[in-house]
Amino acid sequence: MSRQRMSNWKKLLSFLAPKSGVARWAFLLLAALGVFLLAASTVTVLADSRHRGEMFPNTVVLGIDVTGMTREEAVARVKEEAVAPLMTPLTLSFRGRQWVIDPRELNLHVDAEALVDLAYRTGWERSVFERALRRAFNRPLDINIGLEYSLDRDLLTRKLNAVAAEIYCEVVNASLNFDFSTGKLTFHPSRDGLRMDVEATLRVVEEALLSPNRIVEPVVAVTPPSLKSEDVQTVLVVDIMGNTLKWYNKDTLIKTYYVATGEPKYPTPLGKFYIIRKEANPVWINPNTEWSKNMPPRIEPGPDNPLGARALVTSAAGGTVLIHGTKNLVPGLHSHGCIRMANWAIIELFDHVNVGTPVFIWTSKPVPLPPPEEGPPVGPEDPGLGATGNSGAVDTTH
């Protein structure tokens, strides 16, 4: 039998033709799969291209969901809902004072176009097959673009330095001024020491500029006074020649009482003093002085007690000058240095006075000298206050 020469085409067909039924079916299956993949790829590419120009699913820029928008639409939305609120003025508020900070004056700039473009490229710069599969199986990327901005921090720092200068003040303790020539009492309130931390406030303000919060407080170190205004309450002012004791709350007069003070031989000392002890229902112990030599060694609380119903020990003359009660008050210069009040008056005043209460003793006109036969004035005598255990509550405020 003679061989026939085959054409090149027939040789190719002969090479591809399967020699058995299984091979033939395998070949057909592979061919069909190839056609399917080609068709699917074509459909995928076409479907993906239909969304070209749109923001990828699940895309958020500055907290705004821009899914499905064009870049122009996304930019407009981000500017309106995220950027515009950042350009409204911010108020720095401290203790009733306010300072306005305008972001535009600080050259605050947020490039919405660049942020949207970054979000767009993050989704679309992946392969077409990855994009198609994510769409097909509803597994989008989480694209969340945060804030990027520019700000003139030097300008902001200068503005905050100006605010810090307005806030700054030294700590001031509460104080009392007393004019011993006129008897005028003046109260000066306390004041906290204030110092603004510019660097810390800069961080707070910058954070607030980029958030919806438009009212913030500066970071201020507060140094409280050691003596606050509320620590100064009752103040006592005694006028020797005016025969009065005035009760003040700070420098507001509450009540005036008549008193007796030291006779010329035993004058009540002038100056500023403090209450150092309180005794309710005091016990009198005979101090064995000339005026008490005929009196008993001890007198318990009661109507005959020389110290009356209450006694307040002042720091004057080493604690020998008392403000105390008496059952028979005669205003004038009659005591041996103490300040006598009617029993009802000292009882009324007693609970409003604390240890540490200031006492100003002055005279509205000169105190007369003792008669020559009595010799020169001497200091107050021991009033004979004993310890009873009934002292008023101790309070160390001044």
Write a structural description.
The chain is 28% helix and 24% strand. With 398 residues, it is an alpha/beta fold. The strands form 7 sheets. It has an 8-stranded mixed sheet, covered by helices on one side. It is rod-shaped, with a radius of gyration of 48 Å.
Break the fold down into its secondary structure elements and pairings.
Blueprint: H1 8-16, H2 21-50, E1 59-61, E2 64-65, H3 71-86, E3 90-94, E4 97-101, H4 112-124, H5 128-136, E5 143-145, H6 153-167, E6 175-179, E7 184-188, E8 193-196, H7 198-209, E9 215-216, E10 220-223, E11 234-239, E12 244-249, E13 252-258, E14 260-262, E15 271-280, E16 284-285, E17 298-299, E18 310-314, E19 322-326, E20 332-335, E21 339-342, H8 343-350, E22 358-362
Parallel strand pairs: 1-5, 3-9, 11-22, 14-20, 19-21
Antiparallel strand pairs: 1-2, 3-4, 6-7, 8-10, 11-12, 12-13, 15-18, 15-22, 16-17, 18-19
Helix pairs in contact: 2-5, 3-4, 6-7
